[in-house]
Design a protein that fits this description.
The protein is mainly beta and 269 residues long. It has no helices and 24 strands.
Length: 269
């Protein structure tokens, strides 16, 4: 069972039976999913990509579900959470990419404390979204991040404690997601090229706009969205493609009317 976020929904998906069950709707576009083992955290933007509401007025929320996917609470920050993308649970904190402001919001549930961190420094004037920071992962004790850059993307590495920038290297085009393979190679969706890309140069053409990546139990799940004009994206059909451990395509599940597919995680229920 998988959890999948789209332009309209948080979905529970049984890939084998092709059963798709809506868990939550009505909070605009849903994006990042993270878990602390007891709760699922889901980024809900409260606004659609095609919305007439100006982007600077966006006020996103973090939805908190229990393991049975019952909504427990909605969490707001003391500053706007705008254009939330991927989120990460690590060391008792929730890390939230907020691309509109080129920042990462850090929330500590135990204390209720929020922090706004600008990994590459604050942008002095609008438009603030210079690097479109969108993806997070902890690899070998370092915080890895994708700078989408609206074109040639970069993999950024930071020391978690000091948050000092360690390195930045090219990594795909309009990239999303970071996944570490067993051999230490990092994998991303080079979305602008319609491909999966490894840090060692490995490449697999998958078509469409790949975004959302999960490797679980010998299978890889990749979200594929249609390439469409912004005003049409929320009405499009997205797909969930499944590959085996040898990268052979096994099946594809269509999600008509769900718009964009944004994130994929394992469900605990």
């Amino acid at each position: 069972m998988l959890l999948v976020t789209t332009s309209h929904s948080l979905l529970r998906v049984d890939v084998e039976s092709r059963l798709v069950e809506p868990v939550h709707r009505g909070h605009g576009l849903y994006f990042g999913i993270a878990t602390d083992g007891n709760r699922h955290f889901v980024a809900a933007r409260k606004r659609m990509v095609s919305s007439d509401v100006p982007a600077h007025e966006e006020q996103g929320r973090i939805l908190v579900f229990d393991t049975a996917l019952r909504l427990l609470e909605e969490i707001a920050a003391p500053f706007p959470l705008r254009d939330m993308h991927e989120i990460l649970w690590h060391d008792g904190k929730l890390w939230v990419t907020c691309s509109f402001d080129n920042l990462v919001a850090i929330f500590e549930p135990a204390t209720g404390r929020w922090e706004a961190w600008h990994p590459l420094g604050p942008t002095p004037a609008a438009p603030y979204d210079v690097n479109h920071l969108n993806s997070l992962a902890v690899v070998n004790g370092q915080l890895c991040m994708i700078a989408h850059n609206f074109g040639a993307s970069e993999l950024l590495r930071f020391e978690i404690g000091s948050r000092a920038l360690v390195s930045r290297v090219p990594f795909g085009v309009q990239s999303h997601n970071i996944h570490e393979l067993e051999n230490g190679v990092l994998l991303t969706c080079s979305s602008g090229e319609g491909a999966l890309l490894g840090s060692d140069g490995w490449r697999l053409e998958v078509g469409g706009f790949p975004r959302g990546l999960l490797m679980e139990k010998g299978e890889t799940y990749v979200g594929l969205s249609e390439i469409a004009e912004r005003q049409d994206r929320d009405l499009s059909t997205c797909r969930l493609a499944v590959f085996d451990s040898q990268w052979r395509h096994l099946r594809t599940l269509d999600l008509p009317g769900e718009g964009l597919l944004l994130d994929i995680q394992e469900s605990s229920s």
